[in-house]
Amino acid sequence: MNKPAKNDSPLTDISASESLLRSQVEMILETARELGATAAEVAVSQDLGLSVTARMGELETVEFNQDRGFGITVYLDDCKGVASTSDVSREAVVDVVKAALNIARYTQPDPCNGLAASELMASNLPDLDIYHPWQITVEDATSQALACEAEAMAFDKRIVNSDGATVASQLSCLAYGNSHGFLESFLSSRHSLGLAVIANDEGGMQKDYWYTVGRRPGDLENGLLVGQEAARRTVARLGSRGFDAGKLPVLFSAQMSAGLIGSLLGSLMGGALYRNASFLTDSMGSKVARDDISIIEYPHLKCAMGSAGFDGDGVATSSKEFIKKGVVNSYILSAYSARRLGMQTTGNSGGVRNVRIEGELSTFSQLLKQMGSGVMITQLMGQGVNTVTGDYSRGASGFWVENGEIAFPIENFTIASNLKDMFLGVAGIGNDVDLRGNVCCGSLLIGEMTIANG
Predict the structure, then answer these.
(1) Above 50 in pLDDT, residue 260?
(2) Domain boundary among 187, 212, 235
(3) With a threshold of 0.90, does the pTM exceed it?
(4) For residue 426, how many other CB atoms are within 10 A of its CB?
(5) How many CB atoms sit inside 10 A of residue 7's CB?
(6) The domain containing residue 272 runs over which residues?
């Protein structure tokens, strides 16, 4: 393999692609109009990325990706057709638009189809500060990955193997336009360093991981600290013991709490609501969580992982409270799902952005002491969340807590309850917020769940 020179990064600034992508979106929209579409919308994403993985002291893989794809949606009145292409030559575009139109001709009319209202289109987009290229070379990325792994391997003699440390950088350009004359685009970056290692003792083997991610290279946690944390978490899992199951308080770590909140938000999604496939159907104004809990979206946070000025329909994004003081205050709607429900879009086509949970906060140590004895969850397995009923049942691993202190690791057990009961029964919210994802929160203490040994 021919490596780039030391000072030559394979990741070039993709900002020059933005004007080209916008002109290509305009061309596709014009082609759709010429071929008879009553309306059309086009989204394109171009990505440029580098990923370097080192394992057991050696460079294992170097991956470079450059991808581009156009998603084209055309409407013939209430009929809809969708097609995609990566080729934007005039001949290819004509062919793919014709294909989309043919699909539309054979679909059933749906009066809820169509573009979002023109007056809802985003304008005066905020500066989100989410594009920061990292001019890192393969050589430098390899050095960082090797150093991170070496730090983990040296942490404890029981660390015996590694799944590898990976340094990755991704640059993206997204453009969206539609027949309203709306056309906007933005650039973004995502950089990360992560590691998983394996420990072994007389009781068996355990694996855990840690990672850091950010829009700016300077936001990444030091690679040596990442290695130390991955090793610490892995070693802490050794020596698993049994415990007395039953109805117990459960403390979800900050990393696990995000998924729990995501399950609740999934039940507020328009697609689940109009299909009557959610336990929160017709729940507007209903109490579903403890009185002081609010779950809020902040799509315009600078440098945050989920920030965006417009949604997948071109609608302007805005802050909103999905749960306000324990009560359902807003559903999560695209233009289509809103029409199905006789409501207005919330600017959430494509999902939620930068969600936070707010309420009275406690430190992690305070939550442990408040719990007394119970189960702390650090890993979850399986997909046991039923959005129709709200029933929640997952395999789990974590730690037994005794008298407000972490006592020993536990594994191969299940936790079960109902999402509504869980959020109504939140006994505490941690201030140890994990900011690495799109849904960010601290640890959550649930007053009681049913625990069963595997």
Answers:
(1) yes
(2) 235
(3) yes
(4) 20
(5) 9
(6) 246-453
